[in-house]
Specification:
Blueprint lengths: L10 H10 L8 H5 L23 H11 L10 H19 L33 H5 L4 H12 L2 H10 L1 H7 L4 E4 L4 E2 L7 E5 L5 H6 L5 H22 L12 H11 L7 H24 L1 H8 L7 H9 L11 H17 L6 E5 L6 H10 L5 E5 L8 H15 L9 E5 L29 H22 L10 H7 L7 H17 L5 H16 L8 H9 L4 E3 L5 E4 L5 H4 L9 H11 L7 H6 L25 E3 L13 E2 L5 E2 L30 H27 L10 H4 L22 H10 L5 H8 L11
Parallel strand pairs: 1-3, 3-4, 4-5, 5-6
Antiparallel strand pairs: 1-2, 7-8, 8-9, 10-11
Helix pairs in contact: 7-8, 10-13, 10-26, 12-13, 13-26, 14-26, 15-26, 16-17, 17-18, 18-24, 20-21
Length: 780
């Protein structure tokens, strides 16, 4: 799709405002105001204004243009934030063209692992005695390192870029663990543990003596040997995506019915070989999994196997090096050992792009560090946006369990995985290479959009109640992440602006009804935008519907305003409804592209008592948000319904029974309960099982590459591999949609709608969306 000209970019918003603000829906203002002055626009003054002033989407935007964002959201102007959104869109385009590999990442950890020999620093580089402070030779040098790291990893990266020699000295007063080489950079000391995984090209990985190329060769050899053994013992069969259901059962029945007495010598030998194959077909799926065995049997041959695999799977020198799962497991375990050895001294802990680190491992590590005060999680591929809820609950649990003389966890810096889309030159044919930020593919917008804001509502209220530093700070990692999501410009920030204004008004017990209703409208407008008509919000919705109805979620137990429930959920029975936040968290849990679920498979042996249905200790919500959301029920078991009673005539009697509202329908997997302690992770038998699972995953990925090469197109009534099977890295059931007429935005679709459709009504948007002129993936 050709890009549209911006038509002046941000100035288009002002033009739209001029046209919208003259609408007839606000012409009632003079009649209703009875000569009073203008509305407060969010003032927290305790006025007794009795007349509700007209307010709608156009007035909301006009207020934002005039007054700007709440100080906790942004100190930039509205036009500057719009311009920044366009800059992010341009960066996304550059990334997809291969010109900006760092797009979507929060921190460039390469700066933190550059070697600086502190022992030979000259006087003009770091003057004495400051040299000893930076080198961590004095206690106040280690405190300086702790304070810098406490403010987030970006502080350390900026120091390393601006003053490499200073960073080289300062890093000696902390423990910098380079995950990619499984070793500390320098001698570990101090109170800070930074686990960094720098991104390197495959060419650099092969050239640099710091990296252990032999480990990757062993991992590949293990995968090749596994595939070869399965193929030799199980033989070749029709590709599994072309098999007739029940064919294998028929083969077993024929073998059972065979009469040995009627066979000659050659037939008996063939019969024994067939029995051995069937035995292998029973044994190998138990050891290596049914999916891998089916894939291997679908390979026509394994001749020149190693050479073929190397030619197909070895990246180009300029491509990013990606660890195999066997090597990733080994490096993550080495990281855990390093943390365990320093667990009592760690006060600040950063995880950067750590492979296979999921929320359960974070919980195990955090519980093992009794003096932990700050936790930073950045760019970790197995941790998504929805995990922020259980991390807040975890911090609440840990702080509640600590004694009076122990420090509390005071800060959380969080940048979840960002889905950048695929490089256009590397995208598989037919793939959607767009950047969706939250997810790697399109999601149903009704649940995705409402779900994001439902999660943000909990994050703000929980972090504010706990006085947690960094998380919602204006320029910290999480706000940076939110600013890069391909929602419409201003959509997320205007939600936060309304929320903070509302909380301020509640805190001062304001009686300014206009300010309160305007703030509430500004909270709900981004949630509803593009999903419901905003054309006639004044006056029926604004005066009579807004903020009136709460609904209960049977998954999390929270009661939200109905706007945080998808339309389909609202029509469900009250005790079965699911909020959009839980639905989105489920979808993100189920993503499996790019190996996102490999860690779950590998770590399973370590967590035999873990179950997704267990609940964490809910962190409290800030009291001033209770009219928006509150924890309604913590009961997780539904009581039995009363027995039906019948009268003498056979008619049903007895009082009408209303199902109680309990959270017995948990759908996502955020439980952090019933996990082992950190020491329990170092069980040799469990590690051996995990290594085998990592090997099976690597073998599956190798077989997937081979099948794509062997069956690139349909032949002899056998479909091409990519057409006959769901993608090995596909989206799973959560992405299958029958009624998805609206799906989430990429940057391209968001830009088209922002620039071209601002002056259309909701009905015009729907008609335009369904026309042949444009078939977008979403609309606002």
């Amino acid at each position: 799709m050709a890009k549209k000209k911006r038509k002046g970019g941000p100035n288009l918003m002002a033009e739209a405002l001029r046209s919208q603000s003259t609408g007839s829906d606000l012409n009632l203002k003079g009649k209703m105001s009875s000569g009073r002055g203008n509305y407060s626009g969010g003032s927290s003054s305790k006025t007794t204004e009795s007349v509700i002033m007209p307010y709608n989407a156009a007035a909301s935007m006009k207020r934002l243009q005039q007054k700007g964002f709440h100080k906790k959201v942004s100190n930039a102007s509205v036009q500057s934030e719009i311009a920044q959104w366009y800059a992010t869109r341009d960066e996304s385009d550059k990334y997809r063209k291969g010109d900006l590999p760092s797009f979507g990442r929060y921190a460039d950890a390469n700066e933190l692992v550059k070697t600086v020999d502190v022992a030979v620093l000259q006087q003009h580089q770091i003057q004495y005695p400051i040299r000893g402070v930076f080198a961590g030779l004095h206690i106040f040098g280690q405190i300086l390192a702790e304070n810098l790291a406490f403010a987030g990893i970006s502080n350390l990266v900026n120091l390393a870029k601006a003053y490499p020699e200073g960073w080289g000295g300062l890093s000696q007063g902390m423990a910098v663990f380079d995950v990619s080489i499984r070793a500390f950079r320098g001698l570990p000391s101090g109170y800070v543990f930074v686990a960094v995984t720098p991104k390197v090209s495959y060419g650099e990985f092969m050239r640099n003596p710091d990296f252990n190329q032999g480990q990757e060769r062993i991992a590949m050899r293990n995968a090749i040997n596994t595939i070869t053994d399965i193929h030799h013992e199980c033989g070749t069969s029709i590709p599994f995506w072309a098999k007739v259901p029940g064919a294998q059962v028929q083969e077993l029945e024929l073998l059972e019915a065979a009469d040995l007495a009627e066979m000659n010598e050659e037939e008996r030998k063939e019969y024994i070989r067939a029995l051995r194959r069937e035995a292998s077909n029973l044994w190998h799926p138990r050891i290596h999994g049914k999916k891998l065995v089916e894939m291997v049997k679908s390979l026509p041959h394994v001749q020149d196997f190693a050479e073929r695999v190397a030619a197909l799977s070895e990246p180009a020198p300029s491509q990013e090096y990606c660890m195999s799962r066997q090597v990733g497991l080994s490096t993550t375990f080495t990281t855990l050992i390093g943390i365990y050895n320093r667990r009592h001294t760690i006060r600040v802990l950063h995880f950067h792009a750590t492979p296979m680190l999921d929320r359960r491992l974070v919980a195990i590590v955090a519980r093992a560090c009794p003096n932990l005060k700050m936790l930073g999680i950045y760019d970790c591929p197995d941790i998504h946006l929805g995990d922020i809820i259980c991390l807040l609950d975890l911090i609440h649990e840990i702080n509640s369990s600590r004694s009076c003389d122990q420090p509390r966890i005071q800060a959380l810096d969080f940048y979840p995985r960002y889905n950048t889309g695929s490089l256009l030159g590397q995208a598989k044919p037919g793939d959607d290479a767009n950047a969706y930020g939250l997810s790697s593919k399109k999601l149903r917008s009704d649940a995705q959009q409402r779900g994001l804001f439902g999660i943000l509502l909990q994050v703000v209220l929980k972090s504010k109640r706990m006085n947690l530093q960094l998380l919602m700070d204006r320029n910290a990692a999480f706000m940076t992440y939110l600013s890069k999501l391909p929602f419409l410009p201003l959509q997320i920030f205007s939600f936060l602006d309304g929320l903070y204004r509302y909380l301020d008004l509640m805190a001062t017990r304001s009686t300014d009804k206009n300010a309160i209703k305007q703030a509430l409208y500004d909270i709900l407008k981004p949630v509803r935008m593009g999903l419901e008509s905003l054309d006639n919000d004044w006056h029926n919705f604004y005066l009579h519907e807004m903020g009136q109805t709460m609904m209960f979620c049977s998954s999390c137990g929270y009661e939200y305003l109905e706007d945080f429930f998808a339309q389909t959920a609202r029509t469900a029975r009250p005790h079965t409804r699911l909020c959009a936040a839980c639905t989105l968290r489920l979808w993100l849990d189920e993503e499996c592209d790019s190996g996102k679920r490999d860690g779950k498979e590998v770590w399973e042996p370590f967590f035999p008592k873990w179950h997704h249905s267990e609940f964490n200790a809910d962190a409290p919500l800030h009291q001033h948000g209770e009219s928006l959301i509150k924890l309604k029920s913590t009961e997780a078991v539904r009581p039995p319904s009363p027995a039906t009673q019948f009268g003498p005539n056979g008619n049903v009697i007895g009082p009408r029974y209303v199902e109680p509202l309990v959270r017995d329908n948990k759908i996502h997997n955020d439980s952090l309960q019933n996990l082992p302690n950190l020491l329990g992770m170092f069980d040799p038998e469990l590690l051996q099982e995990a290594q085998h699972r990592a090997l099976v995953i690597d073998a599956r990925k190798t077989a997937d590459v081979l099948l794509r090469d062997f069956y690139p197109r349909a032949k002899n009534d056998i479909k091409a591999y990519k057409d006959g099977t769901s993608d090995l890295e596909g989206q799973g059931l959560a992405r299958e949609r029958q009624d998805m007429c609206l799906v989430s935005h990429s940057f391209d679709t968001a830009a088209v709608f922002f620039e071209s459709l601002q002056n259309k009504t909701f009905q015009e948007l729907k008609a335009y969306r369904n026309s042949n002129q444009w078939n977008p993936t979403g609309f606002w």
